[in-house]
Amino acid sequence: LVTGASSGIGEAMAELLGAAGIPTVVVARRADRLQQLTDRFPCIEVLAADLGTPDGLAKVVARVEDGAAPIDLVVNNAGFGTSGEFHELDADRLDAEVQLNVAALTRLSRAALGAMVPRGRGYLLNVSSVVSFQPAPKLAVYAATKAYVTSLTESLHEEVRGTGVNVTALCPGLTRTEFQSVSNTESYATEYPSFVWLEPTEVAKAGLDDVAKGKALSIPGVMYKSMVAGVSIMPRGLTRRLSSLVQRG
Questions:
Q1: What is the arithmetic mean of pLDDT over 173-181?
Q2: Fewest C-beta atoms under 10 Å: which of 132, 206, 219, 236?
Q3: For 162, which DSSP code?
Q4: Can you give the pLDDT at residue 248?
């Protein structure tokens, strides 16, 4: 089951799974976009739901917990960001961002492990970001939600060690998706050189490969692996200052 499957990384994952003939439930608000996937891959099942609403979240939780049609892999990919000066941003949008990126992901992670651990098998892949490892001025709430996702996922990875269930956080860097238009960061396309950008398919493949291998963290791209390693040993004050200078640039 893949959430946020109507575009970007989620759509790429659905395409990879569909091309492999793996029965896959795709979740998103835009049913018409999901239907295009079923037209190409007969093994794909559409579940139109808005995870930002109680009813939509309950619908997806019920599907994950359905023992009659068990789900072996849950990909929590749905999420969005908001850029700008924190004090100027719309408070309701920030609430919705936290609800989707944090609360919905947590509820679906609980549902997934609640079904998988007793069975002794399963895979949970939570899509985070490299910004989860550092401050991100002007993307403060998004970075904070992703820091939660990475921390939660690493904790769960250790909790279920030895149960037959793999839990992985996928932490990509800049990826060519609709994120830029939704988060009002279209300027990134010209501000950052082409070599720093990842394609959705390579990110999706890395995440699926790494959760199958049982890795705690999946960081696509040598450059981003190196960046995360550097951040981990850099003084936090310096990391904070450098991230602020990058955003201002």
A1: 71
A2: 236
A3: T
A4: 46
Please tell me the distance from the alpha carbon of residue 127 to that of residue 206, in angstroms, as a whole number: 11
Rounded to an integer, the average pLDDT of 36-41 is: 94
Where does the chain have alpha helices with state H?
8-19, 31-40, 54-65, 91-98, 105-119, 140-159, 179-182, 188-191, 200-213, 222-233, 236-248
* Secondary structure (DSSP) of 95-137: HHHHIIIIIIHHHHHHHHHHHHHHHT-EEEEEE--GGGGS--T
Q: Answer yes or no: 142 catalytic.
A: yes
Per annotation, catalytic residue among 123, 142, 148, 224: 142
Quick check: 176 and 199 in contact, CB under 8 A? yes
What's the whole-model pTM score? Answer: 0.88
pLDDT tens digits for range 51-87: 999 999 999 999 999 999 999 999 999 999 999 999 9
pLDDT at residue 17 is higher than 80 = yes
Distances (CA, A) of 101 to 37, 41, 214, 235: 24, 28, 23, 28
